[in-house]
Amino acid sequence: MPLTYPIAEQTLDNGLRVVVSSDRAVPIVAVNLWYDVGSRHEPPGLTGFAHLFEHLMFQGSRNVASGQHFSLLETAGASLNASTFFDRTNYFESLPGGGLDLALWLEADRMGYLLDAVNQENLDNQRDVVKEEKRQSYDNRPYGDSYERLVKLAFPEGHPYAHMTIGSMADLDAASLEDVHAFFRKYYGPNNAVLTIVGDVSEEDAFDAAKRYFGHLPAITTPPPAPDGTIGPMTDVQRDDVESDVPSDLITMMFRLPVDGTPELDAAGLALDILAAGQSGRLNRRLVRDEQIAQSVSGGALPLIGGVSFGTLTGIASDGIELQKVEDALLEEIEKLAADGVTSEELATVQAQAERDWLEQLATCAGRADEISHHALLFGDANRINTRIDQVQAVTVEQVQAAAQKWIRASGRVQVTYRRSESGEQE
């Protein structure tokens, strides 16, 4: 299914990779900036730094006062945000085409001159914001720490994926202003980023604007590569059982999977989709509709580029049902898939779902810009947005079964269970 979104690329003298996809059919322009730094780049003692900068980058720079980044763009009709992940950090905004210069000027000012505004007061303030985020999203939300617990079990200590992007609060408390400045200087430069511009602008005008606002910024020293996280499938079972004040009993299993960008990862992801994606998934049909032992099931692959990915399966027990019954059913279906394989109809269904989801993502300027940055930064191939779905469609039933047999196994998993405690106390 060939896609033909236009892709034009230039690399500025300072190393900034600029990708433009002109779309004159909409009066919107999306600006998307991916930095090649995420939690997997953080050395021991500096966890949480990439996520900390997601906050600091909105707190002013040399020519932008604290709070003005949001206010200036929102006044211009923009929607904007940022996110941090294991493999990258991204900053993005969508706004009417006339606001392109404003968006690029703001992004360039904080790329080049953020540290002018990162003083001790600013650092302390945003450190407190991150702590409150952790309390709200991880510590005081039902099941909020499940992924923290899972990655600690799934990866050995020191592995680049063994900690979440929120990081360690002890590391953030110990971070000095000098530590924070040094981290920024190491990773946040034009030659460690991809800038994507999509929407109502010509290629020529977009490249000219990128050069005007970013071209004078100096390159940084080439950052050190992230540690190699290559590791094979799980070979044993590890559990973490939690009694907590949760609304329902829940189990999540995690499996190590192949690295992103490989047919084997595509096959493993489709295997998890056949189990858990949508109303037609095997687990939903059996556990939710037929046996009614689970309120819901979910799961899927989380692609990563640092030598390994991971995938999960989650079941929430129905009221009055022992969680062990849900666990047993999950394991039976995992083993059945590996032993008996999948049908061509099942595979075609999840491939069609993947195609639909991909087309929906690319249908908006913002979604397209994000995927272009993603594939340009992590794979060096912005045009991969036009060929990605073909790779998924090429997976065979034999590849799905082989991936399941190697990677998605009852005897090779970690799991976290949450059971309601009578007292409501948390572990």
Automatic annotation (TrEMBL):
Superkingdom assignment: Bacteria
Entry's Gene Ontology molecular function annotations: metal ion binding; metallopeptidase activity
Cited SUPFAM superfamilies: LuxS/MPP-like metallohydrolase (SSF63411)
Pfam families: Peptidase_M16 (PF00675), Peptidase_M16_C (PF05193)
The Peptidase M16 N-terminal domain, residue ranges: 17-142
Cross-referenced Gene3D superfamilies: Metalloenzyme, LuxS/M16 peptidase-like
Residue ranges of every copy of the Peptidase M16 C-terminal domain listed in the record: 176-353
Signal peptide: none
Keywords for the protein's UniProt record, in alphabetical order: Hydrolase, Metalloprotease, Protease, Zinc
Xref: InterPro entries: Metalloenz_LuxS/M16, Pept_M16_N, Peptidase_M16, Peptidase_M16_C
Keyword S-adenosyl-L-methionine set for record: no
GO-annotated biological processes: proteolysis
Entry's family note: Belongs to the peptidase M16 family.
Protein name according to UniProt: Insulinase family protein
Organism: Kribbella soli
